[in-house]
Amino acid sequence: MTAFRTPRSHTDRLRNRIAEGDTGRVADEALRIMDSSRGSWGGCWEQVLDQLRALPADDRRELLHALADRFDQAGDDTEARCRHLALCALVSEGLGGAESLTDDPLAAERRKALDDLARRQSFWYAARFEVLGRAELAAGGPLPAPVVAVVRRAALDAYRADDLVGLARQLTDPVLNVGEAWAEQALSDATTPEWQALLTHASTATASKPTAKWDKQARTLLDTLGTDRVRETVLSWLALVGRPRTLPLERQTWEPDINNAYDPYNATALRGVAWLLSLLPPHPGTARALGALVETSLRKVAGIGPRNPKVANAGVVALARIDSEAALAELARLATRVTYKNTAKLLDTALEARATALGLGREEIEELAVPAYGLTEVGRATHHLGEATALLEIHGTRAVLGWRNAAGRPVKTVPAAVKRDHPDELKELKTAVKDIDKMLSAQSERLDRQFLARRTWPYAVWRERYLDHPLVGTLARRLLWTIDGRTAGWVDGDLRTLADEPLTEGSRVELWHPAGREPSEIVAWRDRLERHGITQPFKQAHREIYLLTDAERATGSYSNRFAAHILRQHQFNSLAAIRGWRNKLRLCVDDSAPPATRELPQWGLRAEYWIEGEGEEYGVDTTDSGSYLRLRTDQVRFYPIDAPENSAHCYGGEYAMWLRDGRDPVAPIPLEDIPPLVLSEVLRDVDLFVGVASVGNDPTWQDGGPGGRFREYWTSYGFGELNASAETRRTLLDRLIPRLAIADRCTLEGRFLHVRGDRHTYKIHLGSGNILMTPNDQYLCIVPKSDPTAPGTGYLPFEGDRMLAVILSKAMMLAQDTKITDPSILSQL
């Protein structure tokens, strides 16, 4: 029990020591009180300080020297030394700057403590660093810029003290916190009062949207500096956002990855910078930079989540305020990419507002928002730069920039004359390549979602926005379409049916889906694509079809097809968001959550995938922040879209419908009543979640994970029966293997691709990519690269199957196992 439980005894003893007139004993008693408080500056501390500050000035100076003489008592403990320094600073407050400057026995120690502070993200109130900061300012010494940054960040904490906030408000220089590349570039550029004023105004962007008053002052500042000059300068700042910190911060083991997060003080100014850009005349570079800012700000950081959603939202707000095709294109592109709920909602609102203003539907505005990027025909543009010619062409989902010299011959590198005489045009071309790559990816994902959108087009509109669009046409011409009930694909410069009949007109166009088609038709289209070397941007002709099973007819209202799997939660959550599902991360706390859901408004349905957190040991089954590392899966169900939502405890347990306002529970819809295309597409999504996020396809989990409790699941999944996507993979490999350079070493048998090497024969599972080798089916662990490639495989009929690339790359390696040099693999062989 500490003496601080009876605070009056402290003040009484201190009063007695002061009355005795023994400064040394007063110092000892003050330090004893401080030590007994253990870093808490509440309770009787104000009374203690009142007594010490009431001493005559000469007595206080003598007390300071007595406290300084006892500084070594703090030892090497950093917190104890800081408390000691804080006590001295509190006692000295009000003595007078000039006198303090000449009579400051611990000045060097205080500066050293402040220098040590410079590498921290923030500090705990009990350390009282703000007292040391005030003391340094009172002594006439300015605080170093890194220390200013720490004080400002600490003042933003929800539990900060008023005097800390007061000190932060005093610190107006520098305008931004140092330590971030973009901020230091901004500080370097802002060398005039006008630029300083602009940065200061940007730092006042504390609301979610700019007010009319904020805009008015911003416009005045922009007019003073010149809009073109501001744009060029500010875009150079945004190009540095997200770069590694110039002043790395010390990170404690329990702290999140603070060095990859935004400085929270600078984030406010960054939001203001985005708003400033929206007040400038429209420019493609502005829209491009704001789109990149949104994506960079939503990039995940370990232990934090998205870097800074507020900055991302500011980027969306800024784009929505710019009336230009480039800004609309960025909004449409981001709408297909962003999965963070609040930012996605802002994007939806912005696009709906733009559609309403133009009298169009949301789908139409997204279609019209896709720019041509200078392409003059489908997938191609020619640019003459002096005597050289640049050929910008789209190959698959990538843009390629090629060159021809004055004689018209292809050259591998950019001609020197172009670099010398046309640097701006060259920069624009390279930027266009990057923009096209991003937009192609976004449009491919948007098209892949059209199967459940029930979207149809008048023929002329469809040709303009899809088939003949300079960019989207490169995707549309590799897909199959249904025109007035007849299926056609682009071959030899025309839309043609399976019978090779041209289709040059029509009235109604839809995206073709294999559900409900005759197997012979599906196979015929696959053959045709392969015969003409057409690689589809995603699985269409080879798309898996999920038909109702006897087990599902027996259960009636739910499917257990993808139940009892163990998934990596964060990977599942990201995949679900990309595919248009809404999900809430499960935390290891006493809370409930709805299932992962996908709303299908065009069908009046809501699909649910029931999941629960797996495990109960904090730190083993969870992240440091308490979110589950893994999930256990259960049923798939369908409800009317307006039915009350189900929920269950995050730990697991029965799902129940949350009923409000006296509503009655709503029964799930029998699976037989779900349209076959809807059932197939929803189950395909769920199959994707399991196929990608299951711990069963992690080659490093042969020990079964924590405590070995997932060993049985890992084995059954990693080498078990093939799911629908793996069956599609098997069918494709059956046609692909004969064309491989290692064809004579490969055979397909059941669930495995057998590869004969010189050391062993290997069995690669077609679902998980896991490997068994002779003799005795010994497990071989090969961890694939993050972006696996399989050189020499030649033509593939569709893009996007990462596991196919993993299997092929492993097969290529193992067929030549005597050439393997990786020590981790060799030790197993």
What share of residues is helical?
Answer: 40-55%
What is the overall pLDDT average? 85
Q: Round the Cα radius of gyration to an integer and report it.
A: 33 Å
Strand content: 5-15%
User: How many angstroms does the end-to-end distance come to?
Assistant: 64 Å
- Could you list the spans in which at least 5 consecutive residues all have pLDDT below 50? 1-7, 97-101
Largest sheet features:
5 strands, antiparallel
Strand order of the largest sheet: 7-11-8-9-10
In brief, what are we looking at here?
The protein has 829 residues and is of the alpha+beta class. The radius of gyration is 33 Å and the shape is globular.
Structure, described:
The protein is of the alpha+beta class and 829 residues long. The protein folds into four domains: 3-170, no CATH class; 181-368, no CATH class; 550-693, no CATH class; 711-826, no CATH class. It has a five-stranded antiparallel beta sheet. The radius of gyration is 33 Å and the shape is globular.
Key features?
829 residues; 4 domains; 32 helices; 24 strands
Question: What secondary-structure arrangement, pairings included, does this model have?
Answer:
Layout lengths: L6 H14 L2 H15 L7 H9 L3 H13 L8 H15 L4 H6 L4 H11 L11 H10 L6 H11 L6 H9 L10 H9 L3 H10 L9 H14 L1 H12 L25 H15 L5 H14 L2 E2 L3 E2 L2 H13 L3 H13 L3 H18 L3 H7 L11 E6 L2 E8 L2 E7 L5 E2 L4 H6 L1 H26 L8 E2 H9 L5 H4 L3 E4 L2 E6 L2 E3 L11 E4 L7 H13 L18 H6 L2 E2 L6 E3 H10 L13 E2 L2 E5 L4 E9 L16 E11 L5 E4 L6 E2 L18 H18 L17 H8 L5 H13 L9 E4 L2 E5 L4 E5 L5 E3 L4 E3 L21 H14 L7 H4 L3
Antiparallel strand pairs: 1-2, 3-4, 4-5, 5-6, 7-11, 8-9, 8-11, 9-10, 12-17, 13-17, 14-18, 15-16, 16-17, 18-19, 20-21, 21-22, 22-23, 23-24
Helix pairs in contact: 1-2, 2-4, 4-5, 5-8, 7-8, 9-10, 11-14, 12-13, 12-15, 15-17, 16-17, 16-18, 17-19, 18-19, 18-20, 18-22, 19-20, 27-28
